[in-house]
Specification:
By secondary structure, this protein is mainly α. The chain has one domain. The chain is built from 4 helices and no strands. It is globular, with a radius of gyration of 13 Å. The N and C termini lie far apart (about 30 Å). It binds zinc ion (ZN). Zinc ion binds near residues 18, 24 and 29. The site of zinc ion has 7 residues, from α2.
Length: about 110
């Protein structure tokens, strides 16, 4: 999966989430914008090449801070049904599961 694609997916999800949860139109609310900026920065800063890199969630370098990761999980949980419909990406479900599993391990 290319970094740009990952970027695009997270952006679409956060927009969907913000528009339905926070009733925003067009642009994101401050907190969702911060989450998106954070996620994009993490994707950009990831030292792995797109070809060899697993999704950031499965990366051995845990670059997502746990509170931000929890928010990404929340976004994924809220949008995954629609995301699967609009973006039938196989690895998406995988990512969601990985994040969920990692969260369990942390607790
Ligand atoms: Zn929002």
């Amino acid at each position: 999966m290319k970094k740009s694609k990952e970027d695009e997916v997270i952006e679409t999800m956060i927009h969907m989430y913000c528009h339905s949860k926070h009733k925003t139109k067009g642009s994101l609310c401050n907190s969702c914008q911060a989450l998106l900026d954070y996620a994009k920065l993490r994707i950009k800063k990831c030292p792995y090449e797109p070809e060899e890199k697993p999704f950031c969630s499965t990366c051995p370098i845990h670059c997502y801070k746990s509170d931000m990761r929890n928010r990404v999980i929340e976004v994924m949980r809220a949008t995954r049904i629609r995301m699967m419909f609009y973006h039938p990406i196989i690895s998406f479900q995988h990512t969601y599961q990985t994040l969920k599993n990692r969260k369990k391990k942390d607790e």
